[in-house]
Amino acid sequence: MNKLLGAIGLAGGILGLNFLTTVQAADPKPEEVVAYRQSVYTVIGWNFKPIGAMVKGEMPFDAAAVARHAQYVEMMSKAAPEGFRKGSGPDVVKKTEAKPEIWTKWSEFETKMNDFQQESTKLAEVAKTGDEKAIKAQFGKTAETCKACHKEFRTD
Ligand code: HEC
To answer: Nearest C-alpha to atom 2 of ligand 1 is from which residue?
Structure first.
C-alpha cells in the first residue's frame, strides 16, 4: 500500500513538474517576447547587411560568406513568428518598434512574414550556387520584403 502511494506520488510529482515547465515555456513575459524578436531581427540584420555590401561592390565578394549569411537569415526568418505573441505590443511593452496593427491586421502581417520567409529561402538556395548576378537579384527581392513589412508594421 505504501509502495503504491509512493508510486502515485512520484508519478504526480513528475507530471506536476512537467506541467510547470510547460507552462513556463509557453508563457514568457511580454518583455521576454520583445527581447526575443528584437534579438532575432538583430541576427537577421547582422547577416543581411554584408550580403548587401557584397552585391553592391562595397565589400569583396565571398561566395562562402554569402552562403553562410543567407542560411542564417533563412533560419531566423523561421524563428521570427514566435516573437509576435499576443500581448507583446506597444500597449504592454514600451521599448518596442512593433506597431499595434500587427495584431489587428494579423493575416496581412502573416502574409508579409510568409513573403519574407519564401524570398529568404530562395536567397539561401541561390547563395549556394555562388552566382553573383542571381544572388544580387534575389537579395533585392528579399530586401523588398523587409521594407514592405517595416513600412506597415514597424515604427521608424
Ligand atoms: C513580417 C514583418 C517583418 C519583416 C519581413 C522584417 N521585419 Fe525587421 N522588424 C519588424 C518589426 C515589427 C520590428 C520591430 C521589433 C520590435 O522592436 O519589437 C523589426 C525590427 C528590425 C530590426 C531592429 C531590431 C532591434 O534591434 O530592435 C532590424 C535590424 C530589422 N528588423 C531588420 C530586418 C531585415 C534586414 C529584414 C529582411 C531581411 C526584416 N527586418 C524583415 C518586422 C519585420
So the answer is: 149
Decide: 127 and 143 in contact? Cβ < 8 Å: no
Q: pLDDT digits over 121-150, tens only?
A: 999 999 999 999 999 999 999 999 999 999
- Ligand 1 pocket check: which of 150, 152, 155, 156 to mutate, most ligand atoms within 8 Å of Cβ? 150
pLDDT in tens, 77-102: 999 999 999 999 999 999 999 999 99
Q: How many angstroms separate the Cα of 131 from the Cα of each of 49, 64, 84, 119?
A: 18, 11, 35, 16
Check pocket membership of 100 for ligand 1, CB cut-off 6 A: no
Regarding the beta carbon of 139 and ligand 1, being less than 6 Å apart is answered no
The residue whose C-alpha atom lies closest to atom 35 belonging to ligand 1 is 45
Residue 27, helix vs strand vs coil: coil
Distances (CA, A) of 116 to 50, 63, 149: 18, 22, 9
CB half-sphere exposure, 87, CA atoms < 13 A: 6
Q: What DSSP designation does 58 have?
A: S
- Under CATH, to which class is 29-153 assigned? mainly alpha
